[in-house]
Amino acid sequence: MKEMILIKELIKDKNVGAIVSTSKYVVKDFINKIDFEKAKVFVEYGPGKGVITKQLLNLMSEDTVLFAFETNESFINELIKINDKRLILINADAEEAKMILKNRYKIERVDYIISTIPFTFLDRKKRRRIIFRSYSLLKENGKFITYQYSLLIYHLIKERFSKSSLNATLLNVPPVFIFEGTK
Ligand SMILES: C[S@@+](CC[C@H](N)C(=O)[O-])C[C@H]1O[C@@H](n2cnc3c(N)ncnc32)[C@H](O)[C@@H]1O
């Protein structure tokens, strides 16, 4: 029953992209890639019901901030209930993140971008725009981390980022690929 909101939203909005939340195995693999002691500014694309968002907030220090970009208004209304002053919810597209952070919050660079948006459902140009803009939003050595069910976007990460890596989370059903790009 707890996945009901995902199913309802997927019927209305194809960009939701999944009927179940990210599994605990994938969340663990994401979290293991992050250095919470050094990071001060996080960005999340597509927080959905907040599975990863809540884990990030649990591990982030008090003086760290998380900007979460979510296009689906129903999820925004759920996420508001998290009620944590370090979480800034933005009902906008991931491709606008760089411009919104600069114009609205005077933030030019961030430490980590964590993305669970379904790139497969986006057109080729938009996939490229989001990955290239993410690169320019990151600090030196900043990281873009995402997981996908296919290798579709890995060539873009390899093309743009100085370092890239790919791991499979085999315990997830079906197995997923976690991609990491380091600036
Ligand atoms: C597969 S769900 C992942 C939800 C959650 N993060 C999780 O891990 O369970 C993808 C989420 O990305 C959001 N989304 C899709 N395209 C987006 C975009 N271009 N910008 C921001 N959010 C987007 C959807 O509304 C949905 O909440």
Q: How would you sum up this structure, described in words?
A:
The protein is of the alpha/beta class. The chain has a single domain, classed as Vaccinia Virus protein VP39 (Rossmann fold, 3-Layer(aba) Sandwich), CATH 3.40.50.150. Helices cover 34% and strands 25% of the residues. It is built from seven helices and seven strands. The protein has helices spanning 4-12, 24-31, 51-59, 73-79, 97-105, 124-137, 154-160; strands spanning 41-45, 65-69, 87-90, 110-115, 138-148, 163-169, 176-182. Strands 3-2-1-4-5-7-6 form a seven-stranded mixed sheet, sandwiched between helices. β1, α3 (51-59) and β2 form a beta-alpha-beta unit. The protein is globular and about 40 Å long. The termini are far apart. The model has no long low-confidence stretch (mean pLDDT 91). S-adenosylmethionine (SAM) binds next to α3.
Short note summarizing the structure:
This protein has 7 helices and 7 strands.
CATH topology: Rossmann fold
Class inferred from helices and paired strands: alpha/beta
Q: Please provide the ordered H/E string of secondary-structure elements.
A: HHEHEHEHEHEHEE
Which spans of ≥5 residues are poorly predicted at pLDDT below 50?
Answer: none
Q: What strand order characterises the main sheet?
A: 3-2-1-4-5-7-6
Topology:
Blueprint: H1 4-12, H2 24-31, E1 41-45, H3 51-59, E2 65-69, H4 73-79, E3 87-90, H5 97-105, E4 110-115, H6 124-137, E5 138-148, H7 154-160, E6 163-169, E7 176-182
Parallel strand pairs: 1-2, 1-4, 2-3, 4-5
Antiparallel strand pairs: 5-7, 6-7
Residues 15-18, 21-22, 45-48, 51-52, 69-72, 75, 93-94, 116-118 line the site of S-adenosylmethionine.
